[in-house]
Specification:
40% of the residues lie in helices and 18% in strands. It is built from nine helices and ten strands. Strands 1, 2, 3, 4, 5, 6, 7, 8, 9 and 10 form a ten-stranded mixed beta sheet that branches. A hairpin with a 5-residue loop joins strand 3 and strand 4.
């Protein structure tokens, strides 16, 4: 049964003949060009996803990963809309709930979140291959989903591309100047005065206690720390392995990404080898879309985002096919 208004039904509890194939619900025809059905799979039968299948077969598919703790439909159902749009272009897809998210259950594994996410993605690729016959897949994610896809890609040569929305980003001096400019335009004088005086007071207290300003502690999301050089080299290595990337940055993260040339500028400043720079030019596309917010709230923003990703997927799958 298709997902409607964020609600889902779980597939019927029939036994699976094989782990790779998964249990499925009866297909629901959403459009003359494709149908959808729920699937249950994974080593522990705990993963739930929605499979969208076009009428004709394809060699490449798409797997949509959770954004944070949001259900597999994606922010404001954008993954549902994008999956159906690419199905009209002939690409099958799977909207996946990772372990412990959405409709998927938990496991007894104790080797860490990233190891479990990797197993989930591998199981999803296995299932999409078994059900649709695709040979390779594009991993698409927003925020944490983008970073999961990036971390997984080197471990599986079936990954044909990455769509990363508001994933890894790196500020430069221009980013910082624009960030302060944005703050100054939105702050009133009383608020600015209070902020400056508060900052000075904290510095005085820190000096009185015998130490300087305490650096901000980064939040640990269980993912490896990636520097700008790591990211540039990593993207380049993925391109050379046949895995190009499409990076999208929205207007919701202006404090860390706020101008169209930021990715290119930070990569130029990073100590990358010549072959890495060539790979980035040839295999990485980056769009700054400040009119779109992180959770794809507006219908206009959704249409723009879907059209951009759809065009990139058509280009990549045509080149790969």
């Amino acid at each position: 049964m298709a997902e409607m208004n964020g609600a889902t039904e779980k597939p019927q509890g029939q036994a699976r003949p094989e782990s790779r194939a998964g249990a499925t619900s009866p297909a629901a025809t959403v459009s003359p060009g494709y149908c959808e059905r729920l699937v249950q799979f994974g080593a522990d039968d705990h993963l739930i996803g929605t499979l969208t299948e076009p009428a004709a077969g394809a060699s490449c598919g798409v797997i949509f990963l959770n954004s944070g703790v949001i259900h597999r439909i994606g922010p404001h159902r954008v993954h549902v809309k994008l999956a159906r749009a690419v199905a009209e272009d002939g690409l099958p897809s799977l909207r996946l709930d990772l372990t412990g998210l959405g409709d998927s259950g938990r496991t007894r594994a104790t080797d860490g979140m990233l190891a479990q996410v990797s197993r989930d993605i591998r199981s999803a690729i296995d299932l999409l291959q078994a059900q649709t016959g695709v040979q390779r897949v594009v991993l698409a994610g927003i925020c944490s989903g983008a970073e999961y896809g990036y971390q997984y890609a080197p471990d599986d040569d079936r990954v044909a591309g990455l769509v990363m929305v508001d994933g890894y980003s790196f500020a430069n001096r221009r980013t910082q100047l624009l960030r302060w400019g944005l703050r100054l335009r939105t702050l009133t004088w009383p608020v600015l005065r209070k902020a400056v005086l508060g900052r000075l007071q904290r510095l005085r207290e820190a000096r009185a206690e015998g130490h300087g300003a305490v650096p901000e502690t980064p939040v640990d999301y269980g993912l490896p720390v990636v520097t700008v050089t790591d990211f540039g080299e990593g993207l380049a290595a993925r391109v050379r392995a046949g895995c190009p990337s499409y990076l999208v940055f929205t207007g919701s993260i202006l404090q860390r990404y706020n101008h169209a040339s930021q990715f290119e500028d930070t990569m130029k400043a990073a100590p990358l080898a010549a072959d890495d720079r060539t790979a980035l030019r040839e295999g990485v596309q980056c769009d700054f879309l400040p009119d779109i917010d992180h959770t794809m709230t507006t219908l206009h923003g959704q249409r723009v985002y879907i059209a951009r990703v759809r065009a990139w997927l058509q280009k990549v799958t045509k080149q790969g096919g």
